[in-house]
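In this supplementary section we document a worked example of the pipeline. Step one takes a protein sequence of length 496 as its only input; no multiple sequence alignment statistics are reported here. Step two produces a three-dimensional model, which step three serialises into structure tokens for compact storage. The input and output of this example are shown verbatim.
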Amino acid sequence: MRDPSPTHDEATEPYRWRWLILVVMLAAEVMDLLDASIVNVAGPALEESLGMGTVGLQWVIGGYALALGAGLVLGGRLGDRYGRRRMFLTGLTAFTAGSLLCALAPDTGSLIVFRLLQGTAGAMLLPQGLGLLRENFAGSELTKVFGIFGPVLGLGGIIGPVLGGFLVEGDLFGLGWRSVFLVNLPVGIAALAVAAKFVPKKAGDRTVRVDLAGAGLVAASCALLVLPLNQGQEDGWPLWTWLSMAASAVGFALFALQQRRTAAAGREPLLTPGLLRKPAFTVGLGGIALFFGGLVGTQLVLTLFLQIGRHFTAGDAGLGNLPLAVGTAIGGAVSGAVLADRIGRAVLQIGPLVQLAGAALLWFELDGLSSASFSVWSVTPGVAVSGVGAGMVIAPLFSFILAAVDDREIGSASGVLSAVQSIGGSVGVAVFGSVFFARAAAGDFTRGFQHALIAQACLLVAFLAVTFLLPRKGRPEDEQHGVTGDAPSDVQHAAV
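The serialised model returned by step three reads:
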């Protein structure tokens, strides 16, 4: 019986339905971006419905990013071996099913498990997207594709908290917080139908070996790091939390050693060992973790402060994130269109300084607040300035790190950077959530927010120090897009 799925020979004329491939890729990426941020405004609703505590909320939000980051590099390898179409359809099916399971979750434990499932499915799904686009687009068309990608994904990241707030507050059909997961179902089912019919079939390379031992070490090390950070505050930081974090550091060191030995034995590692011998790349990994840990953690604390500390509705709290989103968009536009090419690496140093100025402004705005006079406009200037600084960094950060990487290493490097970004976000949720709730438990929400700003300032200073070790110029745009080499497997997703 003939396989009904289309095939496409790269040597022939361009595939007729290639623009539909872009549509389903964007749908998958937007689903991921929504799920990464849409739950932020559902905290009080989850507490009321499931009796969820602060630790449970941190796991629901950060667990998704943890599973996504821990599996991204493995997901890319599976696509190489079994074919990108097959892994894309498998990941999209699992992601959509995971969204339904989250919506049906009867208790906190189940919801956390289903969120981890969603993140794992996302790790199988997302690395295939850009590979499929590169297989079906070339030259000027590929440039147009990435020109569409950026704004659409940026919009997805912005509307997550706003849409989440609308759905929770609207309580459509009495679904409450469950609707933030159900919104994925129609998108996922439609994307599956289109992808199954129009994404061309291309066999994978069965000679590619999948390093399951390395993948297991990464997953275990990530869990050993995030578990105590989430649980430690509530348990009073017992001995096991410190032992777990120490074991995590040992696990990551063992992973680096195992990757070198795997390559030396002639097998294919998850991470190209040569990358670990590039100082600019290794310190860049630290910079990615520091920056996104602070950014994601602070955004969560802003939402928690508005909802729990100032009793905003979910919808109003979602709208309260707009100054940050708008500021980020402005900073990204200025950085990408004006500064990055002219002043090089210095843009990565100006950005955190602007963020520090925004954090200082926000601190003084919080100091002058009273419950009676508070509105979202009271903190808009500080939040917006912080957003401008963040946008200045997000746009060029990955290109400056990838400038230290050889063309043949870009695929592996960008997958690792994306993974570290997700894991850093998960750690940020755990750390900043714990810092905020340590003061919020005593009813001092303003001081909890200010303590989170101190934590952000420490991370920004550390990131600023790291930037001096990065290359002075970013990677040329055509090389990032794979015109002269292998394209990053997930840089566009990570940089939004």
